[in-house]
Design goal:
About 45% of the residues lie in helices and about 0% in strands. It has about 150 residues and is an all-alpha fold. The longest helix is centred in the middle third of the chain and has 13 residues, at about 90-100. It is globular.
């Protein structure tokens, strides 16, 4: 009997799974806060109470991406997960959701809102072993080494 893949109805996972580039090393990213111009352009000053551990962008993404969770993660949990030197299982899952589902504009907006520096986020993803997620492609554009 032929294997299922040979019969034509088994998905070809090698072609179905996107091949994200590897996230550059954390020291390739700036450890600076977002520039004032970026903060102004993204309207951060219009919502000063929704920054840092209360990031509006992080709250919105986690609300959409984690709708089915028994206990939905908060922006404050995400903020702590990024800074945890030894992330627990929940923190790892929260970081995985962000790294795999946040769009490039959300990655920048959360940075502008003070949820992390790009280096903070890269370090957190590397600590969890998350080197090939959708965020890798977007983040590498802003690394010192350029896209890749």
């Amino acid at each position: 009997m032929q294997p299922r893949a040979a019969r034509g109805w088994e998905p070809d996972w090698e072609r179905a799974v996107p091949r994200w580039p590897e996230l550059r090393p954390a020291d390739s990213f700036s450890d600076d806060d977002a520039p004032e111009e970026m903060r102004r352009d993204l309207g951060v000053h219009e919502h000063p109470g929704e920054t840092g551990p209360l990031s509006r962008t992080v709250t919105n993404r986690l609300t959409r991406s984690c709708a089915g969770w028994t206990r939905q993660p908060t922006a404050a949990e995400f903020y702590e997960a990024v800074r945890s030197t030894r992330p627990d299982a929940r923190q790892r899952e929260i970081l995985y959701v962000w790294g795999s589902e946040a769009e490039w504009h959300e990655i920048l907006a959360a940075h502008a809102e003070g949820a992390y520096t790009l280096r903070d986020l890269a370090e957190a993803l590397h600590r969890c072993g998350y080197r090939r997620l959708a965020a890798s492609e977007a983040m590498n554009r802003w690394s010192a080494d350029g896209p890749g």
